[in-house]
Specification:
The protein is α/β, with parallel strands linked by helices and about 190 residues long. It has one domain. About 40% of the residues lie in helices and about 10% in strands. It is built from six helices and six strands. It is globular. The two termini are about 15 Å apart.
């Protein structure tokens, strides 16, 4: 899995991101209103879909619902997207499950456990060669590269890291990588040898 360590800004070229996405074993998209609005996230998703074909290596979760009248981008509508939010039936108010009171914390923890198990299963299939388009790597240890997220998803990311680690999977990086150059390359290479 690939984690982009740069803070993308206007004018940045996306070819490196697209090249890395093409070589990834599993794609995890955390959908929110902002995620589907951004051109580079949609190109990242489409690049993975094009390289993965009809495999089941794309995992989507719905962090928050899209605004009314906003359609899902092509290729996402047919994928199951478990909701990670709660909608009050009486008021219609939507809240993230990560910050609400009991009993939703338990439900949220169960969803995180399911997501982690799903990631582990898909990763193991990819590493073992059970997924089309990826070659088995003899003696390879499961390594998951968790992507950088926006501040509102930091706690969710750490829960996924915790569950993957408890399942015996090496999760990298331990902290943010240095940006660019030889120091990034050396640190990333060392991390791959968990």
């Amino acid at each position: 899995m690939y984690r982009d360590t740069r803070n993308l800004e206007a004018g940045h070229k996306l070819e490196e991101l697209r090249r890395q996405v093409q070589n990834s074993a599993v794609f995890l998209g955390i959908l929110s209103p902002n995620y589907v609005k951004r051109d580079w996230t949609m190109r990242e998703f489409q690049t993975f879909q094009d390289s993965a074909g009809n495999s089941n290596r794309t995992i989507l979760v719905q962090k928050m619902p899209l605004a009314r009248g906003v359609a899902l981008p092509a290729g996402m509508e047919e994928l199951y997207r478990p909701p990670f939010y709660y909608e009050n039936k009486e008021s219609g108010v939507v809240m993230s499950m990560s910050g609400v009171v009991e009993p939703f914390r338990l439900k949220y923890a169960e969803k995180i456990q399911h997501l982690a198990a799903h990631l582990i299963e898909r990763h193991r299939e990819a590493v073992s060669g059970a997924q089309p388009g990826l070659e088995a790597i003899e003696g390879a240890q499961a390594v998951v590269l968790l992507g950088r997220v926006t501040d509102d998803l930091h706690d969710d990311r750490e829960m996924v890291r915790s569950h993957l680690t408890q399942s015996g999977i090496c999760v990298i990086p331990g902290d943010d990588y240095p940006e660019g150059g030889a120091t990034f390359k050396a640190r990333f290479g060392a991390d791959l040898n968990c």
